[in-house]
Write a structure and sequence with these properties.
CATH class of the largest domain in chain B: Mainly Alpha
Shape of chain A: globular
CATH architecture of the largest domain in chain B: Orthogonal Bundle
Structural class of chain B: mainly alpha
Number of strands of chain A: 14
Order of helices and strands of chain B: HHHHHHHHHEHEHHH
Radius of gyration of chain B: 22 Å
Shape of chain B: globular
Helix content of chain A: 10-25%
Largest sheet of chain B: 2 strands, antiparallel
Oligomer: heterodimer
Largest interface: A-B, 19 and 27 residues
Radius of gyration of chain A: 20 Å
Strand content of chain B: under 5%
Number of domains of chain B: 2
Largest sheet of chain A: 9 strands, mixed
Order of helices and strands of chain A: HEEEEEEHEEHEEEEHEHE
Strand order of the largest sheet of chain B: 1-2
Distance between the termini of chain A: 46 Å
Chain lengths: ~220, ~325
């Protein structure tokens, strides 16, 4: 009987402190949810359409101040902004938190660990076959700004070793409750020059620079 | 009482299982520790067998014409004999010579330039290469799922009848990891079970002097990227390791290949430019091209007389491991 009471007490405490938090990842263009294959205006009169926006979010952790209060296990999420199943996940916070920290991309150790499954399945089109390594982020589409065949742009950002390391840490302040992380792609296009930066297909300084630009744009929306 | 029985049986099973693993992959005595992380992919006969079937199955290519075994033939130590550059789908010619597949468990990275960082992901390269198998791994998995035989085999090996990329790649690794060549005459001499002829012994001494800094025993490679003085082929423009690291210091460096079974793995070098060991030795003696990556030991060429060359060749032939080349466990054997 005493044990039962104790059990009740504890489970009550845990229930009160353990809270499911929904995390949603979105992409937007000029404040509206991004729609693939639809044309948007760029400042200056050019237009742009996206065929695909996919990226890895890994190593999700919640912080209260400088203290890490939650670490997701096996934390690898391949987010495809056009596929809702991939843009939602849950984390369980056992304490209050005021900051979410995650990575854009896949770390070096994971990139050299051979065949992996789940979202890290190299058959998901996010792995370079001719030169091993995950593609942290793929942004593809068309814009008349691009001096390429069919005006295509393909930004395949990745690289896991040495100076080519492209993974980026992102830390965002959050308030209690569900978290919506947004990537405003209009701001990305304002920050880069599609006339020059339209094709990146391998690791290198170009991929690292674009990864940094992109990571700095993630924001929390409510 | 019953509990004790159960524990007894479990213990016996574990001993049996560990015994089996040991037998499936053993590091030859005196060799360095294998690099491959077997903990992530423990050897298992069912998985090795799937790997063998996949290795020889053209279903891995777009039009079911090319298998891994088309370019990697067992009797030539899994190199592509008679083809300077690899020969893939629809007779397309690649840009490099297919290397021997020998002692892969000790390799840190793969391909002539080290483009591939783990044996498990090696197969992705030829499968996706338009000049080789021109297929996507996702489609290969879908095709395997539709076959009659594979789902049951994967279920038996992985406890999952939904075939996954991971299982396909790990099975191929398991099969290739069994390609251990450690029973050549050279090895038997080292173990005191055989002796070199006088000619072979002289060749071995020359080898120790001039070659073993790069072709280091017992693997006959130091696993590094080196320049051995080959003039660049203007039509291929292959700068080797530099393509991966983009460092000019790596220009013209290629992975030092093993020399085990070298008798059979011709043609030689990354572009298959030499057909015979005599051509190779003539290169080291008098064909060396200067470039920043060339080590001092090769800058003046290696002074080799006619008899030195004959002795070196005699030694190199002792690296032939017939047990490996004719091991039935590696062969196609029909299906």
């Amino acid at each position: 009987m005493r044990f039962f009471l104790l059990y009740l007490l504890f489970s009550g405490v845990i229930a009160a402190r353990c809270q499911e938090v929904n995390v949603r990842v979105t992409a937007s263009f000029s404040g509206k949810p991004l729609l693939l294959e639809s044309f948007y205006q760029l400042p200056g009169g050019d237009s742009i359409a996206f065929d695909g926006v996919r990226f890895y979010i890994s190593d999700i952790a919640l912080y209260l101040g400088d203290k890490r209060v939650y670490t997701e296990k096996d934390s690898y999420h391949l987010v495809d902004v056009s596929d809702e199943v991939t843009t939602h996940f849950r984390v369980s916070a056992t304490q209050h938190f005021d900051k979410i920290v995650f990575h854009l991309g896949i770390d070096s150790a994971t990139s050299t660990s051979g065949a992996l499954g789940g979202d890290l399945d190299p058959g998901k089109g996010m792995f370079w076959t001719w030169q091993s390594g995950y593609i942290n982020c793929k942004i593809e589409g068309r814009s008349n700004r691009c001096p390429t065949r069919h005006h295509d742009f393909s930004l395949h950002l990745g690289g896991y070793s040495g100076a080519d390391l492209a993974i980026q840490e992102i830390a965002l302040p959050v308030s209690p409750g569900d978290i919506v992380i947004n990537l405003p792609l209009d701001k990305f296009l304002a920050a880069i020059d599609l006339r020059r930066q339209h094709t990146v297909m391998s690791p290198g300084p170009g991929a690292v620079a674009l990864s940094k630009t992109l990571a700095a744009l993630f924001e929390v929306s409510r | 009482m019953r509990k004790r029985w159960v524990i007894g049986i479990l213990a016996a099973l574990m001993v049996l299982l560990s015994f089996k693993k040991e037998r499936l992959f053993t590091e030859p005595s005196g060799w360095p520790e294998a690099v491959y992380d077997f903990k992530r992919n423990p050897p298992d006969p069912a998985k090795i067998e799937i790997g063998r079937l996949l290795f020889y199955d053209p279903v891995l290519s777009r039009d079911s014409t090319i298998s891994c075994g088309s370019c990697h033939l067992q009797y030539t130590a899994f190199a592509h004999v008679d083809h300077r550059l690899s020969h893939g789908i629809s007779d397309r010619i690649g840009t490099r010579n297919a290397p021997a597949l020998v002692n892969l468990a000790w390799a840190r990275d793969f391909m002539w330039d080290g483009a591939v960082n783990h044996l498990d992901v090696q197969a992705l390269a030829p499968i996706a290469n338009p000049d080789e198998m021109d297929e996507s791994i996702a489609h290969v998995v879908a095709k395997l799922q539709k076959t009659e035989r594979y789902p049951a085999l994967f279920y038996a090996a992985y406890g999952d009848s939904a075939i996954k990329t991971e299982y396909v790649l790990k099975s191929l690794s398991q099969f290739m990891l069994t390609f251990v060549s450690a029973n050549s005459r050279y090895d038997r001499v080292k173990k005191g079970l055989d002796t070199f002829t006088a000619k072979e012994a002289k060749g071995y001494a020359l080898f120790r002097t001039h070659c073993s800094s790069c072709h280091t025993e017992p693997l006959f490679t130091n696993q590094r990227y080196e320049y051995n003085g080959l003039p660049i082929d203007d039509s291929l423009q292959d700068w080797g390791r530099m393509r991966i690291t983009r460092r000019s210091a790596d220009s013209l460096r290629f992975k030092v290949p093993t020399l085990r079974n070298i008798e059979f793995s011709y043609p030689y070098m990354h572009d298959g430019r030499f057909k015979s060991l005599h051509q190779v030795l003539n290169h080291y003696a008098s064909g060396i091209q200067q470039a920043p990556a060339l080590p001092p030991s090769l800058q003046k060429g290696i002074p080799l007389s006619g008899s030195d060359k004959a002795e070196l060749v005699a030694f190199l032939l002792t690296l032939t491991d017939r047990e490996f080349l004719y091991n039935n466990a590696f062969s196609f054997r029909g299906r």
